[in-house]
Amino acid sequence: MKLYRSPDLPGRWIGEDQDGALVHWPVERGGWHRRTPYTGGKRQLEEVLPALARGTGWPGGGTGRRPLRGAPSKPLTLRATDAERASWERAADRRERTLSDWCRDALNAAAAAEAADDPRPRSKSKP
Prior knowledge:
single chain, 127 residues, alpha+beta, 5-stranded antiparallel β-sheet, 5 strands
């Protein structure tokens, strides 16, 4: 069974059911029980490790804990106003993500955009 993700459906897994049909479901514990048929195109789907969907109830996800995405680092503390935090929590809820996952995704996207827009020339390494 194959597992996919799509930028068009953030916060949802797309995967094959037991009959090979594509369905999508929330990226959350037991989300497989709220699956619906996937009617989008397959071209934009990114295949990912089936083990990432562990805990959602998807039969192809296996059992046990989900694998970590890289080695965990030390916690990062941000100071925010109550209004900022509430705004971030609403945004995470709309994407069906935890606040921590939403923040990490937003910060990674901002860092990637910043790196792409960086006008400074890259230094060449010396032989």
